[in-house]
Amino acid sequence: MSFRIQVNGRPFDSEPRAGQCLRTYLRERGWLGVKKGCDAGDCGACTVQVDDEPVHSCLYPAVRAEGRSVITVEGLAGEDGGLHPVQRRFLDAQGFQCGFCTAGFLMTTAALEEERGTAHDDGKLDDLPRAFKGNLCRCTGYRAIEDAVRGVRHTERPCAGAAVGRSIGAPAGPQVVTGTARYTFDVEVPGLLHMKLLRSPHPHARILAIDTSAALRVPGVHAVLTHEDAPATLYSSARHEHPDDTRVLDDTVRYVGQRVAAVVATSEQAAEEGCRRVEVTYEPLPYVIDPEEAMRPGAPVLHAGKGPQARIARVENNVAGEVHGETGSVEDGFAEAAVVHEETYRTQRVQHASLETHGCVAYFEPKEDGSGERLTVRSSTQTPFLTRRALCALYGLPEDGVRVVAGRVGGGFGGKQEMLTEDIVTLAALRLRRPVKLEYTRAEQFYGATTRHPFTVRVKVGARADGTLTAIRMRVVSNTGAYGNHGPAVMFHSVGESFAVYRAPHKKVDAYSVYTNCVPAGAFRGYGLGQVTFAVESAMDEVARLLGMDPLAFREKNVIGPGDPMVTPIGEEEDLHIASYGLAQCLGIVRAAIAEDRSAEDAPEGWLTGQGTAVAMIATGPPGGHYADATVSLLADGTYDVAVGTAEFGNGTTTVHQQITAGALGTTADRIAIRQSDTDVVRHDTGAFGSAGTVVAGKAVLLAAESLAGRLKTFAARHTGVARHRCALGEEALDCAGRTVTLKELHEAAHASGAQDEITAEGHWGGSPRSVAFNAQWFRVAVDPDTGEMKILRSVHAADAGKVMNPLQCRGQVEGGVAQALGATLFETVRTDERGAVTTAAFRRYRLPQYADVPRTEVHFMETTDAIGPLGAKSMSESPFNPVAPAFANALRDATGIRFTEMPVTRDRVWSAMDGRSAELSEASAESDDAPDDARGSLVDPS
Fold this sequence. Notes:
Elements: E1 5-7, E2 10-12, H1 22-28, E3 47-50, E4 53-56, E5 69-71, H2 85-93, H3 102-115, H4 128-131, H5 143-150, H6 173-178, E6 193-199, E7 205-211, H7 213-216, E8 221-225, E9 252-253, E10 259-265, H8 268-277, E11 279-284, H9 291-295, E12 319-327, H10 330-336, E13 339-347, E14 359-366, E15 373-379, H11 384-395, E16 402-405, H12 422-432, E17 436-439, H13 442-447, E18 455-463, E19 469-481, H14 487-494, H15 497-500, E20 506-515, H16 529-547, H17 551-558, H18 583-596, E21 608-619, E22 628-634, E23 640-644, H19 653-665, E24 672-676, H20 692-720, E25 727-729, E26 733-736, E27 739-742, H21 743-752, E28 760-765, E29 772-783, E30 790-800, H22 807-826, H23 843-846, E31 857-861, H24 884-896, H25 907-930
Parallel strand pairs: 1-5, 6-17, 15-16, 19-20, 23-24, 30-31
Antiparallel strand pairs: 1-2, 3-4, 3-5, 6-10, 7-9, 7-11, 8-10, 12-20, 13-18, 14-15, 14-17, 18-19, 21-29, 22-23, 22-28, 25-26, 26-27, 29-30
Helix pairs in contact: 2-5, 11-12, 16-24, 19-20, 22-24
């Protein structure tokens, strides 16, 4: 056949493969701005224009584009390289975070703008929920995208020496909006082989035999790897935690979806066919999917035979980790209480749903000294250095023989702290000495990656008649799934700050992280605090209601104060301090919002309305050995280079590191280049997790930049013969008592005199001591009593972020955290069947928040300056998530009189509960009509 297609004005005549979609056709020809997010037409990341119409190229057969004109995001810009007006607006509004979805929004918006005023204009740009029903964003909460479409500019111009505290745009912004930012697979590797994984159909089984002969006969298949090819070493896929209970490929499978074999071939299609031809003989074993049952005597033991080296708390009871503790005597505390509330609260599995799935590519490069080859692993990871360490330990490789690099990462949310692909790809690369790629499908992301831990929390709270708390007791059971990953650490963290934020003389906790034959859970935004905060904040609301007390006043009376110790039953963390205190301000913001709120007037007639609040506290960095090194250097052209290890995935740390450096060196942020997340070119960083990008890596950058500023002044003084205190750093030069010394001149002088050490400096921060940050969320909601439909009338979030380094980016982190938490509150849930198999392995079955689902949240930053964080800053990437679910549940309780104790509070659950309450009230009313007059007063007020 004769095939002709025009892409961004360039003709192509190479025919597509049979069945090939337009997305892969375009990417294979270098148009890498076209992204893979779902391959099902659900997310819109692959959107291109075909004859000016936006289409999802993952669903569009390439052969249908014959004779047509295709435009990708790279083709939007003018021939002179100037930005398209839509690209310029997205850049000015910073309508992105990780940027993986951005091309899709740009292409959709540009196409709709082209329709403006034509016969095809159906008004979608005036109805953005309809316009963007085919586009998903996991990061932003959509407000920034709306502002971009509407032409609202938020970015500020760089200002010398005053970068911190300004809304400066992300340095990668121009690349993001033009589709030239390079994510994990946006590279060309010659001779690349593709890997596909055969996964277990059983929740628990022993592998008796694997026949790979038919698979090896498939044309293009180079290898089939099984447990017999893999090291027997036990490790944790979590990059900084235990237990060590995992093998690269195991002879026992413990959940539906566990990898059994890896097929490596010249194409994905050949690898998939190879997987279909692998014959596995299984011996099914008893399984358990309920964590309470898993702890009982006689339950199937998932990790039988693993000894102390695995660091599992109680193998025989499926307990990966546990913690028990008490301060005071909770029994005495409840005896003192005038009111006691006790209830069980449950949270569900949630998927991270980063639009870039897990994956990596491994290949060999010559060593710089010519002594042979070394392995390079390019991965979508938050932890390059920890991943390198793990690979070296697993395969007995020297650290200088392995390089791990992360390009721009398309979303993380904690999920990419796991080593889920690098281990198996490295095994194949070492075996074949060829480049190997593994990229998860969206379905694999659901059943082969990790989720948020489901929690069951039994909480009991007592208080005196005046509202003073007397005791808090919790029993926490976390379902870690088939492998421990982050299980014990998440469990431990969940009962830390959630307890400490309230003052009570008596506290007790019993917490368990439990193995089940389900998809493993892992690190997720909030790291366990969100689950327990839902229970604690719901319980506090109920206690206030039992007392007839305003729930906000009850919190004001009982929350921790600036001079109070942070008391938890699991012991005091000695390096954790209240180095700044903004909780009272947060509660003040909520009180002011309640006082002036008129949003209930916007509720449809007949709907119920209610309002609710919740608070949360979080440590501003992870405990135990999280550290970062940074190097700042003056370059020959008079600009600066910052080398720092942390990865960028929309968290904004690259921008903040620019701003910190610019402020310390008296220059502008655009004169700072950042090198990052490459174990070859930067020094150690434990990882971009635990909200460490600003408070740990940023602190290291600050120390390096301040040290360099001092060195430059000292050298300039020596170079000019002027006293050091009379040398001042400026944007491009130093003023030495009236004499201008350009930075270029200083660089030349340093090299000429052999003083290169004077133009570079290093900084180290060990991650301790740590401070705490506070957040408060308030909602006004409306509920239709006839259908259970819910509307958020108003959303207010108060954030204690210390010195806000970049208000625009920090606001985006809050909005994105609130949006993600609303998804977990209202509809997101990874459903499993009776065998633990995931049944929601696609976005259309999982239900992510869309543009139409997310309200605008009013974000308020408190006026605090932290004594520990760099320049007074605190972290604010995880914490906004934590108070959202309980605040919504409390508002729903206020509106309906019903306490919802299980997440998510879906519309059908709300309707069912309200319908049941209505039936109960009708029955009670009928009974009271038949009762004597003196008995009618005994009916309990349903509120």
